[in-house]
Write a structure and sequence with these properties.
Shape: globular
Radius of gyration: 20 Å
Largest sheet: 5 strands, mixed
Number of strands: 14
Strand order of the largest sheet: 1-2-10-7-3
CATH topology: Cytochrome p450
CATH architecture: Orthogonal Bundle
CATH superfamily: Cytochrome P450
Length: 389
């Protein structure tokens, strides 16, 4: 078995041949040099998701060591275990009820039209920089109360938090600095909202109570940080990946262009086929055995969502991009206690954004030689997709 190195740019370019070998040859894979296990089969990743106390998130959800002593300082409740996780999730989940998400649709349509109108006459754009990176950032910013003039800066910091240098197994200095900048920005925002509340989620979180207890500033800042990273970057990558893979599969493109009702299926197949969230780390709290190999308490385990979603034991012909397939078993948003709180918002943004693609520039063509890919151990997608139409 060749080494699987999630820091390698070769893996970032195309992890799926590595994943197939892992599933077939080393479903419980140990990397001695980097000191982590990896689970790649669907059944194993699902089992780990369903055991949040044995597969703990409290040590952080990235393979790299967090720049914070307590990873929940920046990852909030996704870097917590039950019952602490459940308490904080229940508190913030009030902002993500189906009714509240549905109420955002007109706002999302307006933001979408605003950006598409700016480039549609030119008949060309960079799909990521001019649209896919803008839409989720604006949606999150509107929810949190981040002023328009600050959004591009926050987006740049978020990109730096995720970026990894080839062969470097730690967060680069620029990423650490960007994390500090984001936390300082949110400290200022929280202080301003405590002094003068507004009609936004930041103010609502400051005022919220659960069992007579309120969030302290650190917790509110951590949630804002989480929203800008997890609630923004992954949707950007989903939009870009969806456009790219539809372009690569003309027969699927013809299907979707004939029937806009298939847009949600287009998004779901993209999430299965090439998910923006590729992997999540866990730390074992006790010894567990998979495939005859014992993983020891305290060791890191990488749950390979991207590999599980291509497991032929669950998905027939998994390397075929097929919007009509059954996506019920997709693990792109996780399962169990840590199921992604923002899944419905991401799906709504994807539906509205991708419908706009089909209505406003359905004949788009991608300049394949000029694509730029993000380099991250967790997130997969593009930083630049030049298109013409």
């Amino acid at each position: 078995m060749v080494e699987f190195d999630p820091f390698s740019y070769e893996v970032h370019e195309d992890p799926y041949p590595f994943y197939r070998r892992l599933r077939d040859e080393a479903p419980a894979y140990w990397n001695e040099r980097l000191g982590f296990w990896a689970l790649s089969r669907h059944a194993d990743v699902l089992a780990a998701f369903k055991e949040p106390l044995r597969f703990s998130s409290a040590g952080g959800v990235s393979l790299e060591r967090s720049s914070q002593v307590d990873p929940s300082t920046v990852a909030f409740f996704i870097a917590m275990d039950p019952p602490r996780h459940d308490k904080f999730r229940n508190l913030v989940s009030k902002a993500f009820t189906p009714r509240r998400i549905a109420e955002l649709e007109q706002k999302i349509r307006g933001i979408t039209a605003h950006y598409v109108d700016r480039f549609v006459e030119a008949r060309r754009c960079d799909f990521i920089r001019d649209f896919a990176a803008k839409l989720p950032m604006d949606v999150v910013s509107e929810m949190l109360g981040v002023p328009p003039d600050d959004r591009d800066t926050l987006r740049e910091w978020a990109d730096l938090v995720l970026h990894r240098e080839e062969g470097v197994t730690e967060v680069p200095p620029a990423g650490i600095a960007a994390s500090g900048n984001l936390l300082q920005y949110f400290a200022t925002l929280v202080a301003a909202r405590r002094a003068q509340p507004a009609d936004d989620l930041t103010s609502a979180l400051i005022a919220a109570e659960l069992d007579g207890e309120r969030l302290v500033d650190r917790d509110v800042m951590a949630f804002l940080f989480l929203m800008v990273i997890a609630g923004n970057e992954t949707t950007t990558k989903l939009l870009g990946n969806a456009v790219y893979w539809l372009w690569r599969n003309p027969e699927q493109r013809a299907l979707v262009r004939r029937d806009f009702e298939l847009v949600p299926r287009w998004a779901e197949e993209t999430l299965r086929y090439d998910p923006s969230s590729q992997a999540l780390a866990r730390t074992l709290t006790e010894d567990v055995t998979f495939h005859g190999r014992t993983m020891r308490s305290g060791q890191k385990v990488l749950l390979l969502i991207g590999a599980a979603n291509r497991d032929e034991r669950v998905f027939p012909d998994p390397d075929r991009y097929d919007v009509m397939r059954d996506h019920t078993e997709s693990l792109s948003f996780g399962k169990g206690t840590h199921f992604c709180l923002g899944a419905s918002l991401a799906r709504l943004e994807a539906r509205v954004g991708l419908e706009a693609v089909l209505r406003r520039f359905p004949d788009f063509d991608i300049a394949a030689g000029n694509l730029e890919r993000v380099h991250s151990t967790n997130v997969r997608g593009f930083s630049s997709i030049p298109i013409a139409f």
